[in-house]
Design goal:
The complex is a heterodimer of chains A (about 110) and B (about 250).
Chain A lengths: L5 H29 L7 H9 L1 H28 L6 H24 L1
Helix pairs in contact in A: 1-3, 3-4
Chain B lengths: L9 E8 L9 E8 L6 H12 L18 E4 L2 E4 L13 E4 L6 E3 L2 E2 L2 H9 L21 H5 L12 H5 L1 H5 L6 H11 L7 H8 L13 H5 L6 H18 L10
Parallel strand pairs in B: 1-5
Antiparallel strand pairs in B: 1-2, 3-4, 3-5, 6-7
Helix pairs in contact in B: 2-6, 6-9
The chains are: A mainly alpha (about 110), B alpha+beta (about 250).
The structure holds iron/sulfur cluster and FE2/S2 (inorganic) cluster.
């Protein structure tokens, strides 16, 4: 029996699920509601998000959420019966997620 | 709730028939059986066998949800037919087919070979490095230690979870929900020391990692075994094992 490398992807998936469930709603409330409503000042938020640690945290969160979505999508394809070209599909889906992460990095560190 | 006034006198049952010697593929045959509010699908099948066609072939034994032999697809969902009341399928017709995902031997009887092989492949017995001599008494277990695996030990091998699992439908090698829950039953047993012997199979791509966490196995399980939960815990253990395998003292990967 060959040991699986799936634990790596699964741990990213799990962490991403956690982040998606806990941090993303908070971010939506902060950036989508509190900020426009003036409850949080733009400058304050900007200082938090643009300091070096803030930038890495944002990138980390995005990375995990992308990893989560990619993994879920890959497995849903199998559940839906798309069982051919697994490697190609995996490369395409994780590649897309990686692209999203790189894009985020460019935006975050610009 | 159907009241006596609206209660039908009969109900239609569409049964999948298949005779390997002269059928290319399964055919459906319709039977009209008396409707009784306390009848289950298995009663209807027994009525058909008794009154209409003695050659109808299916498995059953206990008629009380214990033996696990009467599992079939009823209207496309895997159920124990001795626990599926006709009243829940009104007004009918009720479609009865063999369990999905298994080769059909005849009518509603499926081939168990693959399933039985997988059950024994996970080494479902207590493995000890060294047996304690009988004179030292039994292996004691606290209620808490029992609770760690009790749920996983309730399985009656009805195979409903395999029929409900979308992965098993196209992944013949997948060890599958019940066998993985059974592995977890022994791995979580404080008397057992055989985890390392079970890991190579259950941690492989044909084991827990084939599972896409659909969760249907736990939905259909008549004994609340929660195979999906068992697989989830095993995934966590396997992941910890994977990361620690890179540490100097970690378990090495095969
Ligand atoms: S885990 Fe549940 S559904 Fe699966 S074989 Fe055992 S009792 Fe049946
Ligand atoms: S006949 Fe035994 S479980 Fe249904």
């Amino acid at each position: 029996m060959r040991a699986s490398n799936e634990p790596f992807f699964w741990s990213m998936f799990s962490a991403g699920g956690m982040v998606a469930a806990m941090v993303i709603p908070a971010l939506i409330i902060v950036t989508g509601f509190l900020l426009p409503a003036g409850a949080i000042g733009f400058d304050r938020l900007n200082t938090v998000l643009t300091n070096p640690i803030g930038r890495f945290v944002v990138l980390g969160i995005t990375f995990l959420v992308f990893a989560h979505a990619a993994h879920r999508l890959r497995h849903t394809m199998i559940d839906l019966g798309v069982t051919q070209f697994r490697l190609q599909i995996a490369v395409a889906i994780y590649g897309l997620a990686l692209g999203g992460v790189i894009w985020t990095a460019i935006v975050v560190f610009a | 709730m159907t009241t006596a006034a609206t209660m039908p006198e009969t109900i239609m049952i569409d049964v999948a028939r298949y005779h390997p010697e002269h059928d290319e593929e399964p055919q459906y045959e319709r039977f009209e059986v008396p409707y009784r509010s306390d009848w289950v699908v298995l009663d209807a099948l027994n009525h058909i066998k008794d009154q209409d066609d003695g050659s109808l072939t299916y498995r059953w034994s206990c008629r009380m949800g214990v033996c696990g032999s009467c599992g079939m697809m009823v209207n496309g969902v895997p159920v124990l037919t001795c626990a599926a009341f006709l009243r829940d399928y009104l007004p009918g017709p009720v479609r009865v087919e063999p369990l999905a995902g298994f080769p059909v031997e005849r009518d509603l009887v499926v081939d168990l070979k693959d399933f039985i092989g997988k059950l024994s492949a996970v080494k479902p017995w207590i493995i000890r490095e060294e047996e304690t001599p009988l004179s030292e008494g039994e292996y004691k277990q606290s209620p808490g230690q029992l609770a760690d695996f009790k749920q996983f030990s309730m399985c009656i091998n009805c195979m409903l979870c395999y029929s409900a699992c979308p992965v098993y439908q196209h992944e013949e090698e997948f060890v599958g929900p019940a066998a993985l829950a059974l592995a977890q039953r022994y791995n979580a047993d404080s008397r057992d020391e055989g985890n390392a012997e079970r890991y190579p199979l259950i941690w492989s791509d044909d084991g827990i990692w084939d599972c896409t966490f659909v969760g249907e196995c736990s939905e259909v399980c008549p004994k609340h075994v929660d195979p999906a939960g068992a697989i989830q815990s095993a995934k966590l253990e396997s992941t910890v094992g994977w990361y620690t395998s890179f540490l100097p003292l970690g378990r090495k990967r095969d």
